[in-house]
Amino acid sequence: MLMLSVSKLVKTYPGGVRALNGLDLTVDTPQVVTVIGSSGAGKSTLIRCINRLVEPTSGRIVLNDLDVTALSRRGLRRARRRMGMIFQEYNLVERLTVMENTLSGRLGYVNFWQAYRRKYSPPDIARAFELLHRVGLDGYEYTRADALSGGQRQRVGIARALMQQPDLLLVDEPTASLDPKTARQIMRLLCKLAHENGTPALINIHDVGLAQEFADRIVGLADGVNAFDGTADELTPEVLNAIYGEEDWSKTINRPTADSNKKMQRDGLERESAAG
User: Fold this and answer.
1) Which of 157, 179, 213, 219 has the maximal Cβ count within 10 Å?
2) What is the DSSP string of 92-103?
């Protein structure tokens, strides 16, 4: 089943900087796809073009049966309900509680006065409680967002995106400002929830090691086009040279095989579940 198709995508910014140069990408299974590449390779631009937070210069983006690039402003608002976005900067409303931030994922489904008064249905409230439990924030429902750690804020962002019940998760640098342990926990959580919900996730990430460990598939960008599309086991030093330029990558890719990584992820999730 075709879920996401990106065809000949070009984005040229004012001043002539071309971030994407005819990029093609297809996601046709509910998998976790990480996008790697050097700064300026087009990773964040790709994520933001898909939901048109950045307007493509040319090309076509189709989500299931919907041509996103052809939508009017009103149609785009409806389409964004189907795309859950998780931001590097969290994008929470600091003065609101964890519960209120999570429920804001339903704003596209309520009328103006419900949104203004933050009035949500009992099923939405029950789902928000369930999601906060699943992301490990039991007991934080009425804590203000500005009292949370970075990892906790990112978990709220994940819960908010899942409140949309999206067809696709778009994740922009979810671990950039987190310590290594928290970064691994966030990546493990994203992969777990994406697989449980059968939702494809496109994750832009700088850390090659995390991409290798957690992704079902890795896409490497260089100069705005695909330089690699494959599995962690296929990410050789030669491939990394093509993506990033010449470097000694022996320590970076000296990791267990993909199958071993999947077992490690399952074991980690089981330990977290057992710990409550």
Assistant:
1) 157
2) --TTSBHHHHHH
Lowest-confidence range among 43-47, 102-106, 114-118, 141-145? 114-118
- Nearest residue to 243 via CA among 270, 213, 211, 265: 211
- Phi (first) and psi of residue 120, to 5 degrees: -120, 155
So what's the pLDDT on residue 176? Answer: 86
Residue 219 φ/ψ region, left for φ over 0, alpha for ψ in the -120 to 50 degree band, beta for the rest: beta
Domain ranges of the chain: 4-243
180-212: burial string, b at 16+ Cβ within 10 Å, e else? eebbbbbbbbbbbbbeeeebbbbbbbebbbbbb
Handedness of CA 205, 198, 263, 86 (dihedral sign): positive
Fold of 4-243: Rossmann fold (3.40.50)
Q: pTM of the entire structure?
A: 0.86
Which phi-psi region, left, alpha or beta, contains residue 75 (left: φ > 0; alpha: ψ -120 to 50)? Answer: alpha
Show the tokens assigned to 2.
Answer: 């075709």
Comparing CA positions, the residue from 172, 118, 127, 181 lying closest to residue 149 is 181
Torsion of the alpha carbons at 106, 111, 112 and 115, rounded to the nearest 10: -30
- For 137-149, b where at least 16 C-beta lie within 10 A, e where not — what string? beebeeebbeebe
Q: What is the pLDDT of residues 163-179, one digit of tens each?
A: 999 999 999 999 988 89
Residue 241 neighbours by CB under 8 Å, 6+ apart = 247, 249
